[in-house]
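Quick check before the chapter quiz. The format below is the same one you will see on the exam, so make sure you can read both the input and the output lines.
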Amino acid sequence: MNTVTLSNENKIAFSEEICNMIGLKAGTSFEVILYKNRIELIPINSIKKLKGLFNGINTDIFRDEDRL
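Here is the expected output.
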């Protein structure tokens, strides 16, 4: 298990291994979610980075006759 330590300046540094595993870069912003005694950090991605995320997804919509 990878661990991090909170510094005296209230900063957390992730190991290079963790950053490489999920593609974090210096300056990445995070959304912070607090749940009971847990903190979750969700990287905030730009719209440009999300382009093509669903390439090849099936967009056919099948509807009942009465819904057309």
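If your answer matched, good. The first helix runs from residue 16 to 22.
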